[in-house]
Design goal:
seven-stranded mixed beta sheet; EC 2.3.1.178; Acyl_CoA_acyltransferase; alpha+beta
């Protein structure tokens, strides 16, 4: 089995998935996926292009039939160089439920572990985001690791209409 590939139910649409670092050319497509999700905080298209150009070694996209259908944006945490911090996970609506989000995270953890020496993953999740909690929990279980959470960013810092963000750690 290749790094980032885990035993998950396969469907014809995701069996030939290709995981790779993003490029600047993937940025607009990543922005479209975030925009169309209806739940991700939408950054400018420039931010996603910049992510592909400058943070490719800590991010990943997945292609199905030559089209980018999902992404993870991440960064190496400056205060903890052995930690990958995940900013966003996005998967096209027609590709959800196929295990791609977890496979993206596994791929990222495998690659940054091998290339950068990361040993843990951190991310923030709002209290009502049960899908993300399940995905990150499944990744932790698959890897024989634990998932913990703690208060992190309060709602008053994020502005009207945004819930608090709790810090989740897979270690």
């Amino acid at each position: 089995m290749n790094p980032g590939e885990r035993e998950v139910p396969r469907t014809p649409d995701s069996s030939d998935a290709v995981f790779r670092p993003p490029t600047a050319a993937d940025g607009h497509r990543m922005w479209e996926i975030a925009r169309d999700s209806g739940v991700l905080d939408l950054n400018s298209s420039y931010a996603y292009v910049l992510w592909g150009a400058e943070f490719a070694d800590s991010s990943v996209v997945v292609e199905v039939e030559g089209r980018v259908v999902g992404f993870v944006t991440g960064l190496l945490r400056p205060s903890e160089p052995d930690t990958i911090f995940v900013w966003q996970v996005g998967v096209d609506a027609d590709q959800r439920g196929k295990g791609l989000a977890a496979r993206l995270l596994h791929n990222l953890m495998d690659r940054t572990g091998e290339q950068k020496g990361t040993v843990r993953l951190r991310t923030t999740i709002s209290p009502d985001n049960e899908a993300s909690k399940r995905t990150f929990g499944a990744v932790a279980r698959d890897r024989g690791m634990t998932l913990t959470s703690e208060d992190y960013i309060s709602a008053d810092l994020l502005g009207e209409g945004h819930e608090q963000e709790d810090l989740y750690t897979i270690s």
